[in-house]
Amino acid sequence: MKSKTLVQRIAPWGYGLLLLGLLAAPLLGAYPVFVMKLMCFALFASAFNLLLGYTGLLSFGHAAFLGGAAYVTGYAIKGWGFTPELAMLAGTAGGALLGLIFGWLAIRRQGIYFSMITLALAQMLFFVCLQAPFTGGEDGLQGVPRGKLFGLIDLASDMTMYYVTLVIVVLAFLLIVRTIHSPFGQVLKAIKENEPRATSLGYDVARFKLLAFVISAALTGLAGSLKTVVLGFATLSDVHWTTSGHVILMTLMGGLGTLSGPILGSAVVVMLENKIGEFGLFLQRLTGVEWFSTLGESVTIVTGLIFVVCVLLFRKGIMGELIVRLQKKRTP
């Protein structure tokens, strides 16, 4: 019997420490809304990683599921008077439905053709969201109330909303872990490694790919729905193609095909987007140079440089390289 690697021994402790840190974050002075936003994008990246990292399908249209579910959730609460849990279920179902449609149209294509079809379909949805009257057009869907969960728990409090978000994200992450380590997940890995061989073994590859696509889209929809409830709005940026690029960046930077990689990658990208502008204002006050106030507009340059460094130094992503090195050290 093979002994466990160092990674297998320390991984549960790492996730446990992360959970404890998230539980204590608001009590230690962290801004709850920012951490909730980070958790939503971590779920988004983890759902995308299920498709790319474990099935080998590169989708350029995942923003459609995030933004589409965000709009459905926002309108369900604001327009139909749904409670937050029903609205999030509707948004998640909307993401799954979009995933079924996109997947059915794209799944039988491979490589760049598959990616381009998902991008084209996502851009079609973007223009629908831009023109449809109920989305608010360029202004987006604003002023979405949080309401009361199950009619009992008032989500207006940031602290209450924070712990509800944490529970939802943790449960969704556990679902991803269970999916990856299930027989279904092993088939997905086999398809990624050698699709012709998986076909020769009798697996209906197209059906497995489609199911993986729908699961990824549904979890992405859950992230978008949760984001709308947390922030109180859904905008065109949620469904824009650049958001699809961001999730690819998060996944590759953190470590493709690892559970912890997308979490780290999303944290790096979201923190850069929020903190570079603040750092620029700090430098402006310190030096009196007004140019620094526009530093936040250069966040794409900074993230691009970090991505280049990761590609050059960490070919498997930050967590990917760390895991590879730790796996070489077996416990006695």
Question: Any overview of this molecule?
Answer:
Helix content is 71%, strand content 1%. The protein is mainly α. The protein has a single domain (31-327), classed as ABC transporter involved in vitamin B12 uptake, BtuC (Orthogonal Bundle), CATH 1.10.3470. A two-stranded antiparallel sheet has the order 1-2. Helix 4 packs antiparallel against helix 9. The longest helix is centred in the middle third of the chain and has 27 residues, at 205-231. It is globular and about 50 Å long. The model has no long low-confidence stretch (mean pLDDT 84). It is found in: Cell membrane. The chain crosses the membrane at residues 12-34, 41-66, 86-105, 112-134, 160-180, 210-235, 247-270, 291-314.
Shape: globular
In DSSP terms (H or I, runs of 4 or more residues), the helix count works out at 13
- The third-level CATH topology is ABC transporter involved in vitamin B12 uptake, BtuC
The largest sheet, given as strand count, sense and whether it forms a barrel, is: 2 strands, antiparallel
Oligomer classification: single chain
State the CATH class. Mainly Alpha
Mean pLDDT: 84
GO molecular function, one term: branched-chain amino acid transmembrane transporter activity
Keywords: Cell membrane, Membrane, Transmembrane, Transmembrane helix
Subcellular location: Cell membrane
Pfam family, one: BPD_transp_2
